[in-house]
Design goal:
The chain has about 270 residues and is mainly beta. The chain has one domain (about 5-10, about 20-265). The protein is built from 2 helices and 16 strands. It has helices at about 165-170, 260-265; strands at about 5-10, 25, 30, 40, 45-50, 70-75, 90, 100-110, 110-125, 130-140, 145-160, 175-195, 195-210, 230-235, 240-245, 250-255. The strands form 2 sheets. Strands 2, 8, 9, 10, 11, 12, 13, 14, 15 and 16 form a 10-stranded antiparallel sheet that branches. Strands 3-4-5-6-1-7 form a 6-stranded mixed sheet, with no helix packed on it. A hairpin with a 4-residue loop joins strand 15 and strand 16. It is elongated, with a radius of gyration of 21 Å. The model is unreliable at about 1-20, about 55-75 and about 80-85 (pLDDT under 50).
């Protein structure tokens, strides 16, 4: 477990656009620097950035990483002296090697803002590898500490080696890797719940060759034919859910539970 946690801070200052407007999702143009800092701005110049923590910080912003990782800060416009500049931590990052990026979208609604952070984990295998990206949505509301409201799989891919000899190559018709891909999107709907926008989550999962599974030995299956060498959609993990904010849980919950798609979403 990564010992230093992602830090977040924001200020709801009078210069920001009015939050009374209907919910909207803006595109955030992101620029990255060599030291890991990133700045993302909407077309009307509402900006969010991830940057190394500054020296001389106080309180939560001074948390250290015993493993030697980078300290990060996620912040919206506003100085450290602003009373609304509230530190925030994202807990449970997958590992010390996880990368952190801004989500290239930002959601505004009547009660505040939803800012996204993407964490990516990678794993190497003998002759293959996998990566998975998780989207964290953080709510920033006036007069409240920011808090995470949604954590969902966003994208992933895995290549698993399936050939270890010429006999295996023949059995697999030359397709010596099982391949898995998963992609998901978040969009706004026209509805709202408890004053919060309702979010539509759509995913698509595919595998090659055909319907393979990471929980089964591909070499135990019947020999493949050329007509088996196709990419297919997994109907279970290609799904849609509506997420509504539940005040008691202080989080977004789906209209029905999401299926187990760990074949795709766990690296």
């Amino acid at each position: 477990m990564r010992k230093s946690l992602l830090l977040a801070a924001m200020a709801l200052v009078s210069s920001l656009p009015s939050l009374a407007a209907p919910p909207r999702m803006d595109t955030v143009a992101i620029s990255q620097s060599e030291d890991g800092a990133a700045l993302g701005c909407t077309p009307d110049k509402l900006c969010v950035d991830i940057a190394p923590s500054q020296s001389g910080c106080e309180g939560q912003a001074c948390a250290t990483d015993a493993a030697g990782g980078t300290e990060l800060s996620l912040q919206l416009p506003g100085g450290q002296g602003d009373p609304a500049h509230t530190p925030y931590r994202i807990a449970g990052l997958p590992s010390a090697d996880a990368s952190v990026q801004l989500w290239p979208k930002l959601i505004r609604f009547g009660g505040g803002l939803l800012v996204g952070v993407q964490t990516q984990e990678r794993t190497m295998y003998s002759g293959g590898g996998a990566s998975a990206t998780t989207l964290h949505l953080i709510a920033f509301l006036p007069d409240q500490s920011p808090f995470e409201v949604l954590r969902v799989p966003q994208s992933s891919s895995a290549t698993i080696r399936a050939c270890f000899s010429e006999r295996h190559m023949k059995q697999r018709a030359g397709a010596c890797h099982d391949e898995y891909n998963f992609d998901a999107t978040i969009a706004l709907t026209q509805a709202s719940a408890a004053g919060w926008p309702v979010l539509r989550y759509r995913s698509k999962a595919t595998s090659f060759p055909g319907h393979v599974s990471r929980s089964k030995d591909s070499l135990a299956a019947r020999p493949l034919r050329q007509r088996d060498l196709v990419t297919v959609t997994d109907p279970q993990c290609s799904y849609q859910r509506l997420y509504r904010f539940a005040p008691q849980a202080r989080a977004y919950v789906p209209d029905t539970p999401a299926p187990d798609c760990s074949d795709y979403t766990v690296p």
